[in-house]
Design goal:
Blueprint (H helix, E strand, L loop, with lengths): L1 E3 L2 E3 L10 H7 L26 H14 L15 H14 L3 E5 L2 H13 L5 E5 L4 H8 L6 E5 L4 H4 L4 E7 L11 H8 L4 E4 L4 H4 L9 E5 L13 E5 L1 H14 L5 H33 L4 E5 L7 E6 L3 H7 L4 E2 L9 E3 L11 H6 L6 E5 L5 H12 L1
Parallel strand pairs: 4-5, 4-6, 6-7, 7-8, 12-13
Antiparallel strand pairs: 1-2, 3-9, 8-9, 10-11, 11-14, 13-14
Helix pairs in contact: 1-3, 1-10, 3-10, 4-9, 11-13
The structure holds pyridoxal-5'-phosphate.
Length: 386
């Protein structure tokens, strides 16, 4: 049951056994037909009339105490929004967590997690490289007061301290697509929350909560939105942690715009189809690149997915300059294919020595495979490899 504009919406009892593809289309929308609606409504209100100000005060007090979504009508856009709540409900269903909390970007989501732990005096973070360049930078520079110990997955248990608030990994990681044994890592974390950035795999290929991760983070800007027109982040987790994240979101203001919430909910409905189609093309391109003498090394994860990274013998900048169909651009996860040079762009902010030690070669290119015909993509890559 969840609360939407003051109504308790009862989820069908059969819904708990629905397959991922079905959830992708129906989760967060279960009440629509009874409301006489087909498409979800977009609620752009920033505030909501409340003639019962004593009742509203009590709801605000309850939110301040636990961060639980207030019962009854919404209060103010920073406490929560009904359209965004539909996306949060749907994403939680796909990830297999109790709930989810959406933010204005992936970095806002990670910041909220760090603030949530830091504000409890748990400022120490154990993290495994590589991470997305800005996530690495946020930790390394200590911008939010955190202190980081970098280690490999085998070193996590020894790196934990009494003030460790978080263990952070990406799997597959940006940009090398390195993978971590999530179950073993969750075990090594003990009672310290493990955050898995699942942006690259999506819940279609991997559900980290099933392996023991307490927090599952997405740059929803990527596959969840899927069309390169939404900047967003989300953390899927248990209700207790979500309460703290909602309080941080309320206090710091990194909320998602409801229009973005709508687009993300729509994006989720095609997520399984998009991820599987693009992954099939990516696997084929990885196979061809592996056999190509112009390519030194190909990275493609066991879990699969639509990302391929490869090191060229020649100049990677020439490949970027040579593509015609594939767009040379940072970001990933869109319906169209994108390519970029991590050492110059997405991971430029990471110290070159740390970057190389994490396996990010200066000749590495990161390709986000979209939904174009695979032969057209290969023809473009073939031409660009020159
Ligand atoms: C794996 C990963 N996590 C987090 C982020 C940050 O997300 P956003 O750009 O939505 O803030 C990115 C961005 O590229 C990413 O690739």
């Amino acid at each position: 049951m969840f609360t939407l504009r003051g109504m308790d919406v009862r989820m069908g009892t059969r819904s708990t056994t629905r397959a991922l593809d079905t959830e992708a289309v129906h989760a967060g929308r279960d009440d629509l037909a009874r409301q006489g609606l087909h498409a979800p409504p977009i609620d752009l209100s920033t505030t909501y009339p409340a003639f019962d100000s004593r009742g509203e005060a009590a709801r605000i007090d309850a939110f301040a105490a636990t961060g639980a979504q207030p019962d009854g009508p919404p209060v103010y856009g920073r406490l929560g929004n009904p359209t965004t709540a539909r996306f949060e409900t749907a994403l939680a269903r796909l990830e297999g967590t109790e709930t989810a909390v959406a933010f204005a970007s992936g970095m806002a989501a990670l910041s909220a997690v760090l603030l949530a732990r830091g504000s409890m005096g748990l400022r120490h973070v154990v993290a495994v490289r590589p991470l997305y360049g800005c996530s690495d930078h946020l930790l390394t520079a200590g911008l939010l007061g955190s202190e980081v110990t970098w280690t490999d997955p085998a070193g996590v248990a020894d790196a934990l301290r009494p003030d460790t608030g978080l263990v952070l990994v990406e799997s597959p990681a940006n940009p090398t697509l390195a993978e971590v044994d999530l179950r073993a890592l969750a075990h090594a974390c003990g009672s310290v929350p493990l955050l898995v950035d699942n942006t690259f795999a999506t819940p279609v290929l991997q559900r980290p909560a099933e392996h023991g991760a307490r927090l599952v983070l997405h740059s929803a800007t990527k596959y969840l939105g899927g069309h390169g027109d939404v900047l967003a982040g989300v953390v899927a987790c248990d209700e207790e942690f979500a309460g703290r994240l909602r309080q941080i979101r309320f206090a710091t203001g990194g909320v998602l715009h409801p229009l973005a919430g709508y687009l993300l909910l729509r994006g989720l409905s095609t997520l399984p189809v998009r991820v599987r189609a693009a992954s099939a093309s990516a696997a084929e391109l990885a196979r061809r690149l592996t056999a190509d003498p112009r390519v030194a090394r190909v990275h493609y994860p066991r879990v699969g997915g639509a990302m391929v990274s490869f090191e060229v013998h020649g100049d990677p900048h020439e490949v970027i300059a040579g593509v015609r169909l594939i767009t040379p651009a940072v970001s990933l996860g869109s319906v169209d294919s994108l390519i970029q040079h991590p050492a110059s762009i997405s991971h430029r902010i990471v110290d070159a020595g740390d970057r190389r030690a994490a396996g990010v070669d200066d000749r590495l290119l990161r390709l986000s495979v979209g939904l174009e015909d695979v032969e057209d993509l290969w023809a473009d890559l073939d031409g660009a490899l020159g």
